[in-house]
Amino acid sequence: MADTLLDVRDLKIEATVYPPGEHPRKITIVDGVSLTLEKGRVLGLIGESGAGKSTIGLSSMAFGRGGVRITGGRVILNGRDILKAGRNGIRKLRGREVCYVAQSAAAAFNPAQRLMDQVVEAALKHGVANRAEAEKRAKALFRKLSLPDPDNIGKRYPHQVSGGQLQRVMTAMALCSEPDLIVFDEPTTALDVTTQIDVLAAIKDAIRDTGVAALYITHDLAVVAQVADDIVVLRHGKMVEKGTTYEIIKEPKQAYTQALVSVHHIGHEEKQPTTKPVLSVKNVTAGYGHGIVKVLKNVSVDIHPGQTLAVVGESGSGKSTLARAITGLLPPLQGEVIFEGRKLSNRLSERTKDDLRQLQMIYQMADVAMNPRQTVGTIIGRPLEFYFGMRGKQRDARVAELLDKIEMGKGFIDRYPAELSGGQKQRVCIARSLAAKPKLIVCDEVTSALDPLVAHGILELLLELQKEENVAYLFITHDLATVKSIADSIAVMYRGEVVRYGARTKVLTPPFDDYTDLLLSSVPEMEIGWLEKAIASARWRVRETNAVGWTRTRNSRFRPH
Amino acid sequence: MSFIVKLVAQRMALGILLLFAVSVLIFAGTQILPGDIAQAILGQSATPESLANLREQLGLNDPAYIRYFHWLGGVLTGDLGTAMSSGQDIATSIKGRLWNTLFLAFWAAVVAVPLAIILGLIAVRYRNGWVDKLISGLALASTSFPEFFIGYVLVYFFAVKWQIFPGISTVYDGMPFGERIQAIALPATALTLVVLAHMMRMTRAAILNVMQSAYVETAELKGLSAFNVIRKHAFPNAIAPIINVVMLNLAYLIVGVVVVEVIFVYPGMGQYLVDHVTKRDVPVVQAVGLIFAAVYISLNIIADIAAIVANPRLRHPK
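Predict the joint structure of the above. Result:
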């Protein structure tokens, strides 16, 4: 094929791992994957974490992270095997023929250099353009990617622009040296859903207009369906299925692909609010820096016994601050938190041990929420000792019981967190919070760091436990799909205020307020052409919404007038 | 920008406060030493009357805080008192010696700091290879040997055997610059060898820490050479801890040179201090202690301020 750009054949990649207390051993990360990419096309690589998608993407730049080594196969780019190119040959190709767009642009930019210097660096290094030409091109790209003030944004430092803007600057950086191929490694995963749609549209336009080919890596099938021409599904380093985007989305052949494609609905009946909430937040205003920055503004919500209140909003909307105010970590400036009819002390230090027991918390990052040097048994047993004074056999029996509840079994008692998978770690955290027999558990983005299928399992477990223990959840998330499947009531937050609140069906049924509408319409759907439709309707909505006090620009979010 | 000005002003104010606290400690420390200054001056055969007279004359009968403020007032107006052993004005004798010590420390730093940072960069470039191990090994070995050992080895080879540099670093007023440099070559080399490893290891560690970050990977994926990745992307972000350790070592060069100065009979502060400690000359010890503390504190303030200014988030607020 004359127009083949990238031809990966029977790629094998290994890594050396050093498990604690064991001999280092080699594991296979990518096992015999072959794929081809033609000039100007976009190939989606999709799979869960550990599927080897990033590793394959980086192999097209002959790069291996950490102890990763390419042990077999060929990577042919523009007709030559880059694995045999030698150190200088590889250096000439990186940043020139292939460029990389990382998941977290915030981390991928050098904080000590101005954006422009970083954007034009590769083009200058490879002699693609001189400084003036390169800057001119960069500015044109900033404009194409709808960045604000394209002529001057390059003078800023990375911390001076927002996450969504940085991701677009990174795309401009990749395009600046006019490469043949760009590797996009989860470029929108770290962004809010309302920002993701803009960045996605910008990336798609840029790919189309420049005719560059792309490897688009993501775990989100709905996202990749919007940008890719073809899709390769990966699992455990092996290829499961490949085909055009239409074939994968509409006619998946393999069971694993079908599981990914089918949207998981958890049959959760919405419960009616009771007369007496277990916890009420009344007119709480809270903030940092002695109240100079108000992050919560007059927030009031109720959580009913044995039910789930989902708090949804984008980053910076005050979701986690609400949790901190409820748990007493951040004493509110005004307002109060009522638990079972009585006011809780604002300060954590003034709350009784029983108050503490009744409110438990589960975090997004299960691995950092556990002491890595304690066994699972110690971790779960600690609240049993602390709150109930349980010791010895009694405690061990209860730990085993809790491990059964989280469907892990007492075989895990002597294991350390490092030996567990991400989902198992989160389950242990759930068991630890349940050990205190709380009335309310605050779940802060507990499934956000997990793969979709694993997250699904965690949600089902949480609902199951809710039925058994009659525990209420305050479920903080930015993921609307999760909200739809587990919530009884929903509070939509925006810039510290609750903009919509009520029973699930009521909140999710039109007519919507504009922010909720934007939020709901920004969630990618697994449908080819969704992105264009969503953007088009957003543009249409600009005219409609101006009248009611909200405006939407392509560069920014909703802004109150 | 005003934010930085405020931070800098805060650090300076803190430093001055700290210096006052140190002056109290130094004064109190010399007060609780056993023995009596009047007794020390007059010796065992002094009569009670002459002792009482001298005490009155020296103001030893005043309460401690009065004596402290008296001393502090003198210090603030540049009067460090009189050395008991020689009766000379301390400020005058210190001036020339402080200058000598700073001269030696400056030239040692001019060699040691760039050398340590360059060696650190090279060690990172060839990390875990033989170059890295060789650099680390030699640097650690040079630090592990005590200063006097290094000093004598240098004297043996360069002064006695090959006779390139003098073994005794005599300097005098009006000495030509070239000769002065030649005179301090050996002590400066000894000092360099002593402080090199610490700075080099810290440079290596700080940069290696930064090498894990995503932006270094970005730089590698732009096809930059390994050295440019380190120089342009890793080093500027590792600068704060490096500045700190450099300043700590500069302070050591000034304050910690005692042994080296004694070995090379170099007329600096260290030797002056040692001489007067043996003579139990309390005013001199107080004065030198205060000057050393001031040097230490100001270098650390400079390190603090430099680290603040090196942070782009503080230099360019949103």
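The two ends of chain A are 56 Å apart (CA to CA).
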